[in-house]
Design brief:
Number of helices: 1
Distance between the termini: 40 Å
Radius of gyration: 12 Å
Pfam families: KIF21A_4th
Largest sheet: none
Number of domains: 1
Structural class: mainly alpha
Length: 27
Amino acid sequence: VQLQHKIKQESEQFRAWKTSREKEVLQ
């Protein structure tokens, strides 16, 4: 269960990073 939570947290951080990167590229 703890491992699943860690993976979920990392995937959310990656998604947030990807979104911010895309915004930088669009500007």
